[in-house]
């Protein structure tokens, strides 16, 4: 009922950084948990070994954890425009909730027992009035001199104690003043809660409700602080995050192991692609020949594309993109759904003929069908069964559309064939699925390469029906990538410098041989 009460804007922000990370408005778990669970060192078996770990004191560990948490919080405020602090809600039937409820009940029962004594004892009630006074004062800005004087004068604890000792304390009058002051200071969204307070007649439930509304007002003040610092933070966030990560790296020298492995794989993949495209240039030298002419920017872009095919269950995420793992995961899921949608549409148009291609609204209906049946499925569902249902719905929609426009519906044989082709999309090696997948990847690659330009690159053929959705995802993805580059490019340049230098030295050695 009485969390820390910051007394200044600086206090509010420090409390925001240090105490609220468990209740961030995030689709996944809190930032601190994500960092702790995926931190370097928790997957020691499959990470490259660098320098041996040095002993770390508890103080250093706490300081490092606080720095990482603050960096993650600043990042979340900048990247997530809808970021808000929300009250932590304990799971129903959890031990923590049971203990909290028991302690709160005991406290309020004790207050009620004191007030029912003859004469009443006001020790607990006066302490609560003192806490309410501190809360109200914490909401004031420096210019609120008159309100500060009113609160200090009416909620004068020494005077209240004297009145209680002399039997002259009118606690209902004090509570009435508190409710009026809360109504003056609260956000308009809390007017309804303030109105409900005026309808409570019993003093103990009223005190309890007052503290509940004060907690909501603190949350409103914290969110106001977040919105106030966001513009300034956006100007300095890249430098701030880079500085905090550098401090973390100095204390944990192996904190770029996963990044090194990620970029090395991207360089190897790009070298193999170059060799396939230009076999004469790489003949006899393998990937080393392709790696010799690689551009660091191209390797970075290839690495970011690899994040869209990441195995989040079995493989740790690179350290520098860890704070955005949930966002990359969300984009990956959206692209997988777009891949299936685009493939189903291409198969449908091929099977049903050109009559449906130009029919207004047909593609949108099919997209809606696919989206609804795949919504929320993510990674743990039977794709074959979902596609079977999609096949049934698509065939029904195709026949309905053909009949409405005076065309002959699909024969039973063609309908069976269309359902079979749609179910075959479940196979990752399906020819049409691979074609659509390669074109989506090429579009994103082109967009990354030309992200400094204002216009989007042309959408490859076959992706027209999903162009709008694809461009929306691409804009979100490239914005995320560009911000990550802006923060961590010095670290990437250092790692890639070593990787590409090793590739060149291998090539020189083979040439001398």
From TrEMBL:
The lineage of its organism: Eukaryota, Metazoa, Chordata, Craniata, Vertebrata. Belongs to the TCP11 family. Residues 1-10 have a biased composition (Basic and acidic residues). Residues 1-55 are annotated as: Disordered. Pfam families: Tcp11 (PF05794). It comes from the Eukaryota. It comes from Eurypyga helias. InterPro entries: Tcp11 (IPR008862). This is T-complex protein 11-like 1. One of its GO terms (biological process) is signal transduction.
